[in-house]
Amino acid sequence: MLDTVKATSSTQIATPHPLDPLTTEEITAACTLVRAAAASPENCRFPTVRLEEPTKQELAAGGTPRCAFALTLDVVTGEAIEHIVDLGRNEIVARNVIPNREAPYGQPSVMLEEFFKCEAVVKADPGWRAAMHRRGLTNKDIELVQVDPFSSGFFDFEYERGARIVRAVSFFREHPQDNGYAHPIEGVVAVVDLIGGKVIDLTDADPIVPIPRKKRNYGAHEVANPRTDIKPLHIEQPEGPSFAVDGWKVDWQKWSFRVGFTPREGLVLHQLAYQDGARKRSLIHRASVTEMVVPYADPTANHFWKSAFDAGEYGLGMLANALELGCDCLGHIRYFDVPAADNNGKPFVMQNAICVHEEDYGIAWKHYEFRNGLFEVRRSRRLVISFFATVGNYDYGFYWYLYQDGTIQLETKLTGIIQTAAVQPGEKYKWGGMVDDVLGGPTHQHFFNVRMHMDLDGGGNTVSEHEFVPRPWGADNPHGNAFDTTTRVLSRERDTASVANGETGRFWKISNPNETNSVGNAPAYKLMVNPSPLMLAQEGSYVRRRGGFATKHVWVTAFDKDEKYASGDYPNNHAGGDGLPRYAAQNRNIENADIVLWHSFGHTHICKPEDFPIMPVEYAGFTLKPTGFFAANAAFDIPPDRNSRSVLAGEQDAASESCCHKG
């Protein structure tokens, strides 16, 4: 029981800031207007409803109308239409029909109601039921089979062109809470036409692979011998948190930003700035994870097509969890409830969708000067802004960290349940790792892409690429110990698609060439890329065409309000070629310009027994650190910690010698 912890939720604001998410009233107004204008209001659905954000330039000019973006889908004809609604005028001011019947196609994201529709369609299909009977399942068993709709990918099959389809795989369960992923039904894949409401293609492969029947459940009630030696760990802030929240605006330790949220991206950070003395300095105008893709490396029927674009094909924001106090977050929590629209355009509130709290983060800086006995140490803390999304079998946490020294970090946490494959008895799984007897986990990759509309000190920004190289022997390096740092200014978009190199320590600097720092250089931030894979699918493969953003670690583009997502607007059933490769091919000027920095990062997952029945968290992410942005250590002014620490008996003398401040 965390009785010292307090949780609160955001409230509606009478006059929203131009970047605040839509209110429930605005969602109602926009969807009512759009539905009334639809050719068939009863068949009108809303895959996406969000704020149509004003640009940085429009915000600076002021007086911009507050608008909603509403994407509709006619569930009978399949027609998809984008609408821009001026909420002040209560008028549709723009309307665009998506040409999803023409190559390279593209569909709105899969809606929640279509998940249930898919299962009903599959279970009613005679061919699928016959495939279940061939594998020894009775009609009673079939009722408990778990049918997973999966975005279908694209391979230019005739039935894919311009269609709204999903592929469905199945898992046996003995009861509703049984972990179906322990019992994959191999060799059966149904292709479902979501508009026609029927199975249009069915794979029922031979030879039949027996369904694994061993139970691998993970609920607390299933654990026979839980640990008994875990003592309580209390996180307390009796004087409250160090942050302040005003609507969607947050201030903490010289940081300020606005919280946003969209159905596709989930959490968005707006107008991130740092108070440096008397000057409030802008850093990033807008930051979010715009896409992720999970390509699988198994070429067999159940898996070759799996390459889910979890943001663009489902919507990370629409699948956000209601975070639980003491489980997802610890400490003095501030939750944000997020207004959203369901598939029928009706507003609802996503409770506790975003969590904001502080964390201790060890040592910020320290030095013991033995010559004079001066001993100074400061503890670091960070502000955490996070949300979690469950996309089918996987769960993804997105954690933005702000540090007192001006550092910015994004960490993604990957957990949940792996996709599984049934294996013939006595055989080894060829396309991944064995996780249990007759049960394999396909090798796959996870790629995320973060989009950061940079705004260092306002005005134009420039990105440069740097690496460390040894200096040749010579008069200026007589001992062979010198090395240099190279600099390459990225002037045009085609210069930018870059790959990290740990051997040379390659890094990127974002600077403002119009300003001068305390030592005469341009103030800058450094992008520090963690070790990260790139997409391993072959050149020319459809998944590589569709997920081209994952072929490079770093991209830089000139800002364009229509270039919002790393994979393009509609990756669902899209043939590929959209997104970052297309944006960068324009080769626009990006030197001393209004630029967007995109970073792709991820994880290659070779499954192992320890990943099942539920996967321990894997981490991926990156860091932005000030480099010449401040005149000194920005965390220099952190005061000594006035909290005493508890010690075990016999350690009192050592504790007194290790206090946080001695002078």
UniProtKB/TrEMBL annotation:
UniProt similarity note: Belongs to the copper/topaquinone oxidase family.
Protein name as catalogued: Amine oxidase
Subunit composition and interactions: Homodimer.
Residues annotated as domain Copper amine oxidase catalytic: 233-635
The UniProt record lists the keyword Metal-binding: yes
Post-translational modification: Topaquinone (TPQ) is generated by copper-dependent autoxidation of a specific tyrosyl residue.
Bias (Polar residues): 1-14
Transmembrane segments: none
Copper amine oxidase N3-terminal domain boundaries: 108-212
Annotated source species: Bradyrhizobium zhengyangense
Cofactor: Cu cation; Zn(2+); Mn(2+)
EC class (word): oxidoreductase
Keyword tags: Copper, Manganese, Metal-binding, Oxidoreductase, TPQ
Cofactor note: Contains 1 topaquinone per subunit.
Pfam families: AGAO-like_N2 (PF21994), Cu_amine_oxid (PF01179), Cu_amine_oxidN3 (PF02728)
Domain AGAO-like N2: 23-93
E.C. number(s) listed in UniProt: 1.4.3.-
Ranges for region Disordered: 1-20
Cross-referenced InterPro entries: AGAO-like_N2 (IPR054157), Cu_Am_ox_TPQ-bd (IPR049948), Cu_amine_oxidase (IPR000269), Cu_amine_oxidase_C (IPR015798), Cu_amine_oxidase_C_sf (IPR036460), Cu_amine_oxidase_N-reg (IPR016182), Cu_amine_oxidase_N3 (IPR015802)
Tree of life domain: Bacteria
